[in-house]
Amino acid sequence: MNSNIKIKLSILLFLVATMGQGAAQTYKITFNSPALDGGKYYIGQHFRDKFILKDSSQAQKGTITFLSRTGKLDRGVYTLLDSNKKKIFDFMVDDSRMFSIAFDEKHTNAGMSVKGSKANEVMFQYMAKLDKANEQSKEINARMKDAAQKEKAEKDMDALSDEMNTFEESYRKANSKYLFTKLVTMFGRFDVPDKIPQGCPDTNLREWQAYYYRTHFWDKVDLKDHSLIYTPHLFDKMNYYFFGVLYHQESDTITKYAHSVLDKVVNDSTMLRYFLDFITPNYERSTKNIGWDQVFVDLVKDYYLKGKCPWASEAELYSKQQTVEFLSQSLIGAMGQELLMADTNQSENPADWISSHAFPQKYVMLWFWDPDCSHCKKQTAELITLYDSLNRAGNKVFEVYAVGYESDTKKWIKYVRDHKLPFVNVGGPNVNIDYQEAYNVHGAPTMILLNADRQIIMNKTLATDMVLPFIKRYEETHPEQVNRQPSRWQLEGIRRTKIQN
Questions:
Q1: Is residue 141 located within the same domain as residue 227?
Q2: How many whole angstroms separate alpha carbon 425 and alpha carbon 404?
Q3: Segments of the chain with pLDDT less than 50
Q4: Does 158 share its domain with 230?
Q5: Do 357 and 470 belong to one domain?
Q6: Of 37, 45, 238, 456, which one is least surrounded by beta carbons within 10 A?
Q7: CATH number, position 106
Q8: Residue 204: exposed, middle, or buried by beta-carbon count in 10 A (0-12, 13-18, 19+)?
Q9: 445: containing domain
Q10: Distance between CA 354 and CA 313 in Å, rounded?
Q11: In this structure, are 169 and 244 located in the same domain?
Q12: Domains in the chain: how many in total?
């Protein structure tokens, strides 16, 4: 083999080797600072409200290098974590995976020096500008408290505001291709019109603005961009929307707006799962919000059980279907199943058992309680006070069907008799159906409220002083129930209703 061929072959082998190294070396990120000790440091990837640890490295002489020939860092917001896995600062993985960041001991934005990543460089410049503006704003606000300086301070504040608006507009135009700029745009200030547009039938400005805010909340968010799931911003926005903006809405309204978001990502299983895995458990497990379980049922039916969630295993789908069937029996608006239970005399003859539905009162409160439960005993005492006061006033708008949630029947009977509970007291093994399944009772205390038609109108435990206000609000939103009375079959069943303490 002649020398020229040998040289060419050597060059070719070298190129192949180095090309292989470049392809395998997925990332190399270096941090330099006098603040770095010799401990272990981590890179954390943002995912919802947590970090996923992606890599670790030991600091040496003020330098940490995270190097991988096999690993991968998706585009998104990452965090440098100390040896205790506490956040030091965020950085971006965007235009480059080969870069270095030098920072001062306080790791201020102004003290960041970036090489190899324009995305991080412009991000820290932007954050440093905001830091400076915030300091200026504080100083101006302090001067505003002085009457002699107020006029000048107000002009300075207007000038600062104009300067920052100009800066942000220029920044966004110059750096539109970077993820951080998209985040600034998508998750920045949301302006709501201060006037109702002409031709709109609404007349209440505040209500219209609230509707506008709910409806246009996601307008600027590019839900087609997968990298958003690796930022804290999408989680914060999702959490605030469902459990802030929609918090006081009725379940059907929440479901409506959930559909408006989920239908935008329904063909993207990654994004759909991101939302559903967070939303549905929170509505299923809520113990305080009336009607929220309806949202869980609706979303599971409309997405999981209609084959729109390809990641869900058969076991998961079966489990969710069972949960939906279980919860559906105790949703707001569902007919409350009639309970027939023995009172404290514990008769085994079903003819002696007491119906949960057969009372002349318009409303029936099903009160599942346990004499060993301190909270149960406290609220039971409060209910007695309310119950007796309504009785004395001749305005007992509801009957209390108190179910002893206690396997030791003798203990329950003793407590009822010792404390002279004035309710319709039932319990023990003599019952027509499994009330735990019928009313989704997971423990004590549990409060269920039935209307005149014996439909469930409340399936979460309210504080005693909220019971009458709840009934008042219910009748305001359901005027057909104001003069409603129990049906004839319920009144005819009163012959079976006996209280034997």
A1: no
A2: 7
A3: 3, 5-24, 489, 493-501
A4: no
A5: yes
A6: 37
A7: 2.60.40
A8: exposed
A9: 340-496
A10: 44
A11: no
A12: 4
Q: Return the structure tokens found at 409.
A: 């029947």
Residue pair 100/116 in contact (Cβ under 8 Å)? The answer is: yes
On whether the CB atoms of residues 446 and 330 are closer than 8 A, the answer is no
Mutual angle of helices 179-186 and 147-174, in 10-degree steps: 130
Beta bridge partners of 368: 403, 446
**280: CB partners within 8 A, 6+ apart:** 296, 299, 300
Residues 352, 300 within the same domain: no
CATH number of the domain at 368, please.
3.40.30.10
Element (H or E) spanning 54, and its range?
strand 50-58
End-to-end CA distance of the chain: 111
Residue identified by tokens 């959930």 is: 258
Could you tell me if 25 and 112 lie in one domain?
A: yes
CB count within 10 Å of CB 435 equals 21
- What pLDDT shows up at residue 369? 94
Q: Does residue 112 share a domain with residue 142?
A: no
Examine the domain organization and report whether 99 and 153 are in the same domain. Answer: no
Distance CA 44, CA 53 (A): 4
Confidence (pLDDT) at 499: 39
Tokens of residue 399, six digits:
């009957």
Decide if 474 contacts 480 (C-beta within 8 A).
no
Summarize pLDDT for 206-219 with one digit per residue, the tens: 999 999 999 999 99
Residue 216: closest CA among 172, 260, 176, 179: 260
Counting DSSP H helices and E strands in the chain, the numbers are 15, 15
Q: Hey, is 238 helix, strand or coil?
A: helix
What φ, ψ does residue 182 adopt, rounded to 5°? -65, -40
Where do we find the tokens 């409160």? 365
**What are the tens digits of pLDDT across the range 377-434?**
999 999 999 999 999 999 999 999 999 987 789 999 999 999 999 999 999 998 999 8
Give, as one character, the DSSP assignment of residue 287: S
